[in-house]
Amino acid sequence: MKWTQQFFIYCLLWTATVDADVNPASDSTPYVLFVNPGYEDDSFWYNVINYAQAAATDLNINLEVVHGDRSPLLAQQRLSQKISQGATPDYIILVNEAQTGRKLLESLTDVSSHALFVLNNLNPTDLVEVQLDPHWQQHLLPGVFANNFRIGYLTAKALYDKGEQRGGDVLLFSSDTTPASTMREAGAVSFFTQIDDLNVVQHTYAKWDENTAYGEAKRLLLLHPTIRYVWTANDQMAFGIQRALDEREETIADRDDVLISTINTSEKVLTQLKEGQIAVLGGGDFTALGLALIKIYHHKNGVEWPQRTRFTLFNLIDEPSALYTDLYEKRWAEIDFKGIDLNNNPVNPFIQISIDQ
To answer: Cα–Cα–Cα angle for 209, 214, 218, nearest 5°?
Structure first.
C-alpha cells in the first residue's frame, strides 16, 4: 500500500467517531491498569505514577500498576498474568517503549478493555494497521503524548544561549528506538545544525541509563577533550556524564566550561539545576498518565472521548520560578484534577497549586 493511502486511512480511522467514543454514565469506580515499562523505583516512573495516583484519588479511579523492569518480555508476561488472574480492567494504559506497543496490544485482542497509549505512541505504520482491526476500531482510544521534538529543540537552543552563543564541540546522548528519545534527539539536531560554529562531534546511545552513559562518556572524552556542550535526552544519562567529567577533570582546561542540558524532573536533577551543575533543564511529560486518567474520568461519565492526543506538557525550567517550586515540592494532592481543561493549550497540570501561589 502506498504511503499516501496509508496516511488517508490513518486520518480517516483516527478521527472517526466509533461506538467506544461515548460511554454510558456510570457510578461505578473505573478500574485502570497501567503497564510501566520501567522500574518501580526509577525516578521518572516514580514521578509519573505519583502524579497519576493523586489524580486517581481525586477522580475516584482505581489505578493499579504492573512494572516491566525494562524488560519487554517481562512487561508482557506480567500484563497477561494480571489479565488472566484478576478482574478485567475497564481501561489498560500502555507505553510504546522501544517499539514494544504492538506486541502488548496483541496480548489484549480477546479482552474487552479499552486500551490507550501515553508518552510513546505506536509508530504511524503500526497505528494504521491496528486501526484496520475491527476490535481496535472499537477499543483503542487516543492517548496523551508530549511534544518531544519541541523540548529537544528548546533545550539545545537554551544550552547554546547559556554558553553565551559561543561556538564549540557538542556531544549528544540519547536512547535508540523509543519514540520520545528519537524525537527529542531530532529536535536537538535540528537546532545544532542551524549554527555554523557548533560541531556535533559524536552522537551516542546510552539507553536512558547512568552507567551506560558514564562508560560512553569516559571513552568519548578521551577522543574529544575540548567538548563545550553536552546535550542529553534524560537526567540519568546526564548524571553518568557528570561522573566521567569529574574523573577527567585534569585533562579539561576548565571543568565549568562544559555545559550540560537534560530533560526530566527528579529531585536530584532539580537540585543540580539550583546548584548550577545542570545548565539547562526541561521537563513535564510525567503528567501524561494523570491527564489520561482525566480523559477516562470524563469518558466514564458519558462525555465523548477527546480525539486530541498532542499536548504541550514540556517546559524549560528556571530556578527560581513557580514551576520549579511546584516540581520540587510535588504537592499533587492539592490539585483540582476535575478542573484541568484538556481543551486548553498548553494544559495547566498544576492548576490548584498555581492558583494558590
So the answer is: 150
Instruction: Name the residue type at position 298.
Output: H
Given a contact cutoff of 8 angstroms between Cβ atoms, the answer to whether 262 and 162 are in contact is no
Among residues 282, 262, 288, the alpha carbon closest in space to that of 323 is found at 282
Query: In this model, does residue 21 exceed pLDDT 70?
Result: no
C-alpha cell at 80: 497477561
The label of the residue with cell 535508540 reads: 176
Domains annotated on the chain, with CATH: 31-141+286-314+331-339 (3.40.50.2300), 148-283 (3.40.50.2300)
pLDDT tens digits for 271-329? 999 999 999 999 999 999 999 999 999 999 999 998 889 999 999 999 999 999 999 99
- How far, in Å, CA of 33 to CA of 294, rounded? 14
Q: Crossing angle, helix 288-300 and helix 43-59, to 10 degrees?
A: 20
Q: Of 205, 198, 248, whose CA–CA distance to 223 is shortest?
A: 248
Cell of 7: 496516511
Which one-letter amino acid corresponds to residue 13?
Answer: L
CB 35 within 8 A of CB 68: yes
Tell me if the pTM is above 0.85. yes
